[in-house]
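Lecture notes, unit on protein representations.

Consider one protein chain, 251 amino acids long.
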Amino acid sequence: MVFNMRKIFVFLFCAAMYQAGAQTQFVTKGRVEFEKKINQHKGIEEEAENNIWMQTMLKAYPKFVTDIYELRFDEKHSRYKLAKENPDNKYIMWGTRPTETDGVLQDIDNKTVSVQREVFENTYLIKDSLRNLEWRITDETRTIAGFECRKAVTKICDSVYVVAFYTDQIPVSTGPESFGGLPGMILGLAVPRLYTTWFATKVELVDPTPAQLNPAQKGKKVNWDQLYAELKKGFKDWGKEAAKRLWIVSL
């Protein structure tokens, strides 16, 4: 009887270890689908209190707009782009409507990024180093698309806070837009001052093709500093709106 109980114990122990191993399998190739959501009434509501034109505009445009983006990745590269625009969306702000030509390529091994971005009537091709963000990792966790994620915070443009949730079960240091630099894939992102969030809705275990990870890009070649210098000249008469436009371009 003791012998049988010992066999049962060994069997249960091995089964538990197998299950634990299966649960901690790492994903290094795949496709992440993100829902990007913008609260486009926020930031306008206070100004609209005594402005009839703005009140009319808020009634004519939906409070939230959402679009679907995808991130294809392997151990060394990622590509982020629009997957599906919501045909019911009506956008208030410039820079919030997605374009099919915009896209972000991250080369994780060589620590470089290539961003094709439309700004008004111009198309830019931003080639630069990956962001060197100072992330502060916290103990807060949440589950996103079936993965346990840990919260981290940082800043862009000196004062704009960014909140991210990453998972080390996908040990690829990338994420939506041009964000990355954490010990795993970013599956949740929020920029409160832009009233915008990105959250993964599903993760698919599919191998990306070379064409999907490295498509042809075009545009006026600049780095981030050159782009900011050029745009600041164009936005010089925009007042406080100029900063918000730069934040959108900087994502």
